[in-house]
Write a structure and sequence with these properties.
The structure is a homodimer. The first copy, chain A, is of the alpha/beta class. Chain A has one domain: Acetylglutamate kinase-like (Carbamate kinase). Chain A is 41% helix and 21% strand. Chain A contains 9 helices and 14 strands. Chain A has an 8-stranded mixed β-sheet, with helices on both faces. The first copy, chain A, has a 4-stranded mixed β-sheet with strand order 5-4-7-8. In chain A, strands 10-11 form a two-stranded antiparallel ribbon. In chain A, helix 3 runs antiparallel to helix 4, helix 6 runs parallel beside helix 8 and helix 7 runs antiparallel to helix 8. Chain A is globular, with a radius of gyration of 18 Å. Chains A and B meet through helix 4, strand 3 and helix 5 of A and helix 4, strand 3 and helix 5 of B.
């Protein structure tokens, strides 16, 4: 079984003022997945980010930050708005994927998972197993969930990958992002950025954090932390650029694609 | 706790060729619910039908009918299309409800329930309890689910009411429909239709089935069967007309509203 994450930044237009889907990108990725499944059957789980749909309400209502009891009614509304916004994104993604012939079925985190201090601590994955067994492609996405300590919080697509992988033991984990993988600096602004083929330890991460700005990497450090935890369990992950034509198809076919492998050191 | 069903026919425009929400009706109902919650705190679960969104794909792909193994790929796509269509309806309903200040959170049946021969046989309701405890309004709706016998099937909002009520023991069950309650014949076409204030047994149902056409009642017989089962367990339900101004508000406030009560006989 393969867990494939598709970053929210690839599926939505970040530059648009309104929440807007990137239909062209979406259609291309869907058709690459379909081509790979047509070549040979594969069990697949798709995880997608919240992109420009989920972030604005989550930020506006400061979901995940501690709050006073009298703020609860407003926080609840923020939670609901965020849930509904990412549901809308998921609906548009599923629409495009079904159009290409992919049997995608959404299983939102908010309907069965709970967290403790922003980490998923409860979430029965039987539905995923059942849908996989029946030939469906379960889809889960960055969402809001109840939190035992903070009342409510946001769960990122990256944390979902980790939780799914730990509990479902996939053969491979693939992260489609808008960069080629992990660089020492932002390659778009630094000519001397060094590319990492492989990442194996927290020491590697220290090097990275010492030489680059966390924000500039667009959450890359967060991704790596989630994936290093998987690496320790023997589950290898690969970060690739899903904006490059055919990369998703090739990586699903296990063909050579530029990217950064996060794996256990020897 | 109150379980409130809102019929799909009230929320969508049946006459429209496209799947279309009835925004005016939706806004009115949302504001009636809000007014009641403002007057006094109530725990509420909302169930809505699939309306003109879910029925067309479910019908086109004959979801719930037995099929040959080689038809499975097409059936899967039909399942996914139906799931996505009702998700879209739910997203539009939640949008309108949140706009009125209702903290609605969707918990789709397809993400955690399974059926056996079209009846729900598995579905842990812990998420409902947790969201209710935190002051949210859980929302569930007519959806598709995996079926142990038929592979896939459709679950109606009416069956969901029954499952929720049996397992969560609500104080009251309310069904908002587009008629005043149960008549012996279709009151829109028959002047001699008799109105039933109360329904208590399968014998009453026999009378009804003997004197009217099941189709004409718009699925009313199906609703009554689900509710009579609840009545046997001591859970009373009331069918009212949600198209009449203030009926939803009044029934939530336990004020007098025309309708049919389904309860246990003495």
């Amino acid at each position: 079984m393969i867990i494939l994450k598709i970053g929210g930044s690839i599926l939505t237009n970040k530059d648009s003022a309104e929440s807007e889907i990137d239909s062209k990108s979406l259609k291309r990725i869907a058709s690459e997945i379909k081509s790979s499944l047509d070549r040979s059957d594969k069990q697949l789980i798709i995880v997608h980010g919240a992109g420009s749909f989920g972030h604005p309400p989550a930020k506006e209502y400061k979901i995940g930050e501690p709050f006073q009891k009298d703020e609860y009614p407003q926080k609840r509304i923020g939670f609901c708005k965020t849930q509904n916004a990412v549901k809308k994104l998921n609906m548009l993604i599923c629409e495009a994927f079904i159009e290409e012939g992919l049997p995608v079925v959404a299983i939102p985190a908010s309907s069965f998972m709970t967290a403790t201090n922003k980490r998923i601590t409860d979430g029965n994955l039987n539905s995923f197993k059942k849908y996989l067994d029946k030939g469906f492609i379960p889809v889960i996405y960055g969402d809001v969930v109840l939190d035992n300590q903070l009342e409510i919080c946001v769960i990122s697509g990256d944390q979902l990958i980790q939780y799914l992988a730990v509990n479902l033991n996939p053969d491979r984990v693939i992260l489609g992002t808008d960069v080629d993988g992990v660089y020492s600096k932002n390659p778009k602004t630094h000519d001397d950025a060094i590319f990492f083929d492989r990442f194996s330890s927290l020491e590697d991460l220290d090097t990275l954090e010492g030489t680059t700005n966390v924000d500039v990497t667009g959450g890359m450090v967060g991704k790596i932390k989630e994936l290093l935890y998987l690496a320790e369990l023997g589950i290898e992950a690969k970060i690739i650029n899903a904006e490059v034509n055919d990369n998703i198809f090739k990586v699903l076919e296990d063909e050579k694609v530029k990217g950064t492998v996060i794996s256990r050191g020897n």
